[in-house]
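Each field is set out underneath.
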Amino acid sequence: MVLQYCKDGNLGDYLNKFKNHINYEVKIDHLLQISRGLLYIHSSEKVHRDLHSGNILFDDVPYIGDFGLCRSADDNKKQEIIHGALPYIAPEVLRGYQYTKATDIYSFGIIMNELITEKTPYDDDIPHDPLFLTINICKGLRPKISEDTPKLLNDLIMKCWDAKAENRPT
């Protein structure tokens, strides 16, 4: 497999490199590009299953990468192993349910907030104990949304990471 070299690394690298120097217009454009990539994946009836900041690659514009866990949206095989980066995994997956397009949308909501706030999810909120984080995500814990976030974006982020998968946008 050959991939394009992305000089700005992944989303985390990009945010560290340009911290406090990314204006809202650019952030919105990046989110639009990521959402278009996710729409392409979903319109192909696939689920990424591992959408997190390490898999958003930057070369002036963002690209979704790492399709190693990508599967058909109608893959109904029993879920035996949870894949992905814990802060980005939807609560229903943590409870043992299947990955779906809605679980990708949940992950996208976490990524949206990370890009807007320029902060790693849950970095300041709780101890870095996977069991503690898992339990609290299932109980409704989400990363803090900055008070500076415009209401429209705030509402969209909250819809994307709604506890009920059926309430998330498609």
Observations:
- The chain has a mean pLDDT of 90.
- The helical segments are 11-17, 24-43, 91-94, 101-117, 130-138, 151-160.
- The two ends are 30 Å apart (CA to CA).
- The longest strand covers residues 56-59.
